[in-house]
Specification:
By secondary structure, the protein is an alpha/beta fold. Helix content is 40%, strand content 19%.
Amino acid sequence: MLALTIESSCDETSAAVIEDGRRILSNAVASQIPIHRRYGGVVPELASRNHVRDIHTVLDEALRDAGVELADIEGYGVTAGPGLVGALLVGIETAKALAWVNDKPCVGLNHLEGHLTAVLLDVETIPTIEFPYVGAIVSGGHTDLYVVHELGAYTLLGRTRDDAAGEAFDKVAKMLGLPYPGGVEIDRLAATGDPTAFDFPRPMWTRKHLDFSFSGLKTAVLYEIERSGVPEGQPLSDLCASFQAAVVDVLVMKAFAAAEQNDTRQVVFSGGVACNSGLRQAAARAAAETGRHAVFAPPRLCTDNAAMLGPIAEFYLAPKTGFDAYELGANANLHFGKNERMVSETPNRHR
């Protein structure tokens, strides 16, 4: 099947053409980082307006790069949630319109499911993936651990009780006067810093449960700044390295504890924070120590993009023929469920 996928859940507008759910023929992405940087974070109304502006451009680019026309597309998959409602609706209504005009099936997809299964795409740097595996989604909006049994079947093991890891990175960066996106800046400065210079806490440091909490760590950094002021030069790098080490230690410990508890060989990290160099290095060390494998998609497939939807688009489109997605709408809080083995419903039934 030749599928066109669309992602517009936050501040990237993206369209991709995927063959048989695995082969990436194109993956066009328009980023809004320069627009939101002046505000220190994503402004939902601006995100929606710029999706409207960019959606046709990325669609044209995706089709052109893939060397195909709309008439060649056999099905459409679009992020239906979670995300910003206004942003989601731009992609959803575009996909529905194209599918309706061409009488092709259209399915709404779960953004998190896309992150979890992006490693199933045919990319040379991604090793062969075996089910089941532990999937760690680490992004600006989510810090979740799942067992991925197969496409469509997941067990939620734990998630953050407050801030997501990426959110904590961005908020700490803002305290330090660093530009948005803050996680990138902290990672850059941490590379030359001493991760032991500041004794920041490792929140929820236990293997008994797999939930996370990063708000207290963020507050610890705030107290340090209030006590000593915003550091500069080497002390700034040291603070960034110490904060990053605290986040990474918790993420890696819990992800590999999940793998041990569920007897899985592979731990897959996804989401924007999976681009973090400290996380990649720490996960590689933990894998070597435990005899397991840490798997990361290339950075272009970790941040929000439409290609990551390819495997689940194929999975949910396969049994469908013709357009039937009249009731497909956005669900800002779309999720899988809680602490039980789940076979996800076809997401376009949520509205």
